[in-house]
Amino acid sequence: MSHQTHHPHAPQAPTGMPPQQAARNGLGIAALTLGIIGILSGLIPLLFWLAGILGVLALIFGLVGLGRAKRGQATNRGVALTGTILGVLALLASVAGLVITVTAVDQAVKEVNKALEGSEAKPKDGGAATKEYQGGATAVYGTGLNVTVSKPAAFTPDEFAIGHAKGNKSYKVTVRLENKGTKDVAGDLVTVEARAGKDGKTAERIYDDKSGAGFSGTVTAGKTATADFAFDVPAGAKTLDVEVRPGFDHKATHWQLTL
C-alpha cells in the first residue's frame, strides 16, 4: 500500500500587491561623496573652481535624494541631507578660494609692477624727488643706497684708449655707491651713461687703463664702492647729462653737469 507525501506550498504574496522595490540610495551617497571632496578641494585656493563644480553637483544630488527619501524610494535621508549641507559648504569654500586667489594675484601683480618701476631716489637733504642733480650731489634711494656723481674733470685718454674720437674732449666723473640698506647691491648691474650738449648727443664711454672698468662684484650692506667713468664729448658741448641706474630694482637718476 503506497503512501503519498504532501509537501507544504510556499506562501504567496497576496493577490494584487506589487513586489517591493529596492531602495534608491545612490544619489544620497553620491551627494555625500562629492560634498566631502568639494570641501577638501576648497581648502586649496587654486582648486576653488573644482570645489564649486562638486558643490553644485552635491547640492543637486542631495536635494533629489531627499525627495526620494520623502517619497519612500530611498532609506538614507540622513546621508542625503549631509551631502546637501556639504555641497553648500563646498560652494562657500569655492567663493572663499576665489577671493583669496584673486587677492593674491592682484598683490603679486602690484609687487611685480613695483619691482619693474624700481625705487625712486630723493635728495640727501630729504627734499622731494628731482629730475636732475648737480655735480657732487647725492641721491638717496628708498632701499638705503646712496649714489653720488662728482663734478666733471678734464681727462686725457692714453694712446690705446677706445671710444675717443679726434677733435672731441674727454671728461671723467667719479661715481660712488654707498649701501646703507640691508640688501646687497649687484655692482655688475649698475649702468652709467651720458649725453652731451643741448641736443643730447650720446657721449661714448672711453675705455683705457685708467677708466671704463665700471663696477663689479657686490656692494654689501654697509660698504662703499667707487668707479671712474670717462666720456667722449663734442668740443662745443657745455653740459653733460650723466644717468646712473643701480640695477633693475632702482629707477635711473640724472646728474646735469656743467663742462
TrEMBL record:
It comes from the Bacteria. Residues 1-21 are annotated as: Disordered. Keywords: Membrane, Signal, Transmembrane, Transmembrane helix. The keyword Signal applies. Residues 164-248 form the DUF4352 domain. The chain crosses the membrane at residues 22-40, 46-66, 78-100. The lineage of its organism: Bacteria, Bacillati, Actinomycetota, Actinomycetes, Kitasatosporales. This is DUF4352 domain-containing protein. It holds the Pfam family DUF4352.
